[in-house]
Amino acid sequence: MNSFETVGSDADLVAQAVRELIRRTRFPVAFGGLLDSGEVPVTAIVGSRTRSLEGLRVQPQRGLGGRAMIELRPRMTHDYGASQQITHDYDGFVLGEGLRTLLAIPVIVSGRPRGVLYAGAWEEPPAGGITTAPAMQIADALAGELRIREEVERRLRSASAPTPPPALSPAHREELRESFAELRSIAALVPDETVRERLGELERRLLALSAPSPLPRLSEVRLSPRELDVLSCAALGQTNAQVAAELGLRESTVKAYLGTAMAKLDAPTRHAAVARARRDGLIP
Question: What region holds the HTH luxR-type domain (predicted)?
Fold first, then answer.
């Protein structure tokens, strides 16, 4: 699994990762959670025979998962109960489920642990052994989705200044336009509707920061999301080839989107289309 079907909450992402562990590895049991207030509450469990794993909260450095988080690498034991390499703070949970083989994979975002995924078995490893590669790929995919969400949150916080400055300097305005175009590019890659709505909110804030006083009248022109993406990049002076590379489109597709945007804006050139879009408050 190279990517997740992005869903509503971080806990939903963990649940999807746990299901993938069952599907792609030889382990019959999988569980995991994300770091919250200094510990990892297990929020997703699949394949267990008992309810012993419910309520498990793992602290860094404690147990197999805590050690994996501190060392930022997977840890595995084929005989959990007899292992001398870990603390046994959570034996009541793990041994209560009867697990003997246990793999812990840290979820690492920007060089720091954000959670841990577990895969376990009641017996010794099955014939043919166990490879950790699929489990690590799943943890990496989960970390990638969390990284995107953290970046969105960071940008939302940075754009929430209560009183924007009365006027932007040319350098600041150019930086704002670059940020707007970058946000449009990110939004085009995010499948989750909730995240896209939050990105749209941030885009509207950036437009408000760049708007002249008095504010422009509400434009009657309605550009499609892709037309706005292309026009935002073109506003930075990018060629069709550069816009195509930025948005992952064919150059001919970029040309077509730009043409329809120019037609809607009644603009004979791309420069005139950018100027009209800025005047109508469609782009900064």
Answer: 216-281
Which residues neighbour 156 within 8 Å (Cβ) at sequence distance 6 or greater?
198, 201, 202
**Burial degree of 98 (CB within 10 A; 0-12, 13-18, 19+):** middle
Average pLDDT of the segment spanning 82-91? 94
Rounded CA gap, 129 and 79, in Å?
A: 14
What pairs with residue 101 in β-bridges? 121
Mean of pLDDT values over 175-198 = 80
Give residue for tokens 């083989």: 101
Task: Kindly give, in sequence order, each residue whose CB lies less than 8 Å from that of residue 276, ignoring residues fewer than 6 positions away.
Answer: 221, 265, 266, 267
Asked whether residue 284 is assigned to any structural domain, the reply reads no
Retrieve residue 121's tokens: 């078995």
Assess whether the previous peptide bond of 214 is cis (omega < 30° from 0): yes
The answer to whether residues 233 and 247 touch, using CB atoms and an 8 Å cutoff, is yes
Q: State the CB neighbour count (10 A cutoff) for residue 45.
A: 20
Domain interval for residue 85: 10-151
